[in-house]
Amino acid sequence: MEKQKYIALVTGATGGLGTHICKRLSDDGYVVCANYRSRDKAEAWQAQMRSEGYEFHLYQADVSDYDAVGAMVEAIHNDHGAVDVLVNNAGITRDGAFKKMSRDNWDAVIGANLTSVFNCCRHVINPMLDRSYGRIINISSVNGQRAQFGQVNYAAAKAGMHGITKTLAIETASKGITVNTISPGYVATDMVMAVAPEVRNKIIEGIPVGRMGGTEEIAHLVSFLTSPHSAFITGANYAINGGQHVY
Ligand code: CAA
Predict the structure, then answer these.
(1) DSSP run (H or E) holding 215
(2) Ligand 1 midpoint to CA 2 (Å)
(3) How much is the pTM?
(4) Which residue in 72, 114, 118, 134 could disulfide with 128, CB within 3.0 to 4.6 Å?
(5) pLDDT band at residue 92, thresholds of 50, 70 and 90?
(6) 161 within domain boundaries
(7) Is residue 186 annotated as a catalytic residue, yes or no?
(8) What's the pLDDT score for residue 1?
(9) Ligand 1 site: residues with CB under 6 angstroms?
(10) 24, 151, 241, 208 alpha-carbon torsion, rounded to 10°
(11) Is residue 118 part of a domain?
């Protein structure tokens, strides 16, 4: 297999997790298309990546916007070819006790974390079916598997994401496409570091491994699941949380 020609699209690429996923897929030989929302941050990120020897192709789209995602996927198709690997990594938090949660904070999180998965999968799936090959990875969360105070919106989106994984997996299994979920625990990204230190430290105390995860540890699992050799793994949900939630 000539891996150099394989195209990977990573959403939310400029974040902590996205950056390491892009690097790892590039190390694996993929042409990496890096989706972003904010141009200033993305251009600085691309320059930083270049200085580290990585060449990523930037594509702007708000992933909660169906038509914007369609335009992005079409542009990638014209520039590089069809998407072989889709990593739905983009996500936001709007934490707060449910009794105070605004409709805006519900809509924002469902749009960015769940509707985005529909949008991206929907726009890449038919070309994958046509070519009888594809790898889709949905980056969910330990907080989609268990409960976390203040995250009704996030937990609903992240649990829903695995609902998409399971059904899309069986709809596409006979066509060389695999669809899997990764549910990371607490990883030292900006998103997690935004949690108040006293709350965060208490959460870390509950992780049996005794520390937060590393972004490169999540990227390693993405690499494993995107491999052509992982063809028999589909519809699965991989917990990677240092033992914080075992079931
Ligand atoms: N457990 C039980 N009760 C709690 C609580 C908790 N953890 N936190 C707050 N409360 C109580 C308060 O005492 C208060 O009670 P009263 O109404 O009786 O006074 C009530 O709940 C409301 O408290 P707040 O006004 O402080 O609530 P808030 O709306 O400001 O929200 C919070 C609090 C910001 C959500 C805080 O609990 C928090 O930061 N929790 C952590 C959330 C978290 O882990 N987010 C992860 C982000 S990273 C991520 O999501 C990545 C990933 O995938 C892992």
Answers:
(1) helix 215-226
(2) 48
(3) 0.96
(4) 134
(5) very high
(6) yes
(7) no
(8) 45
(9) 93, 95-97, 100, 141-143, 148-151, 154, 185-186, 191-192, 195-196, 199, 203
(10) 150
(11) yes
